[in-house]
Amino acid sequence: MSTTLSAQHQPLLAKAQQAQKNAHAPYSHFKVGAALIDNTTQTHSGCNVENAAYPLGQCAEATAIGMMVVNGGNLIREILIASPNDDFCPPCGGCRQKIAEFADKNTLVHMVTQQGEIKTVLFSELLPFAFGFDKD
Ligand SMILES: [Zn+2]
Q1: Is 61 annotated as catalytic?
Q2: According to the model, what pLDDT value does residue 49 have?
Q3: Which CATH number fits the domain that encloses residue 59?
Q4: pTM recorded for the entire structure
């Protein structure tokens, strides 16, 4: 279900959009920002970091997860992905597996368009039967 952005999402969205501005996307020109709240209530953000050797590029979600781990978090409560256009930017397959490593059954994924439309789903809806995803 997609709805309009509410005030409760503004802090995460602001962090994701700040990171999005710094995305290194000289090849795709598709700048993505992500921000998450972890089990310590800290927020962490990330952007995509592309590379001339394309497969070495890293998605925004992966960058945010790395920042969380650096700062001692180990569980994602909510993660928000800010799209650079009017379409939602759901996590790619690889990022779904990366999120699964740090998600539980209550983890939420918010996808936000450039226009501010938001779609929220449970992580478990994005990757049913995930490998290694057995946390309560
Ligand atoms: Zn990805």
Answers
A1: yes
A2: 98
A3: 3.40.140.10
A4: 0.94
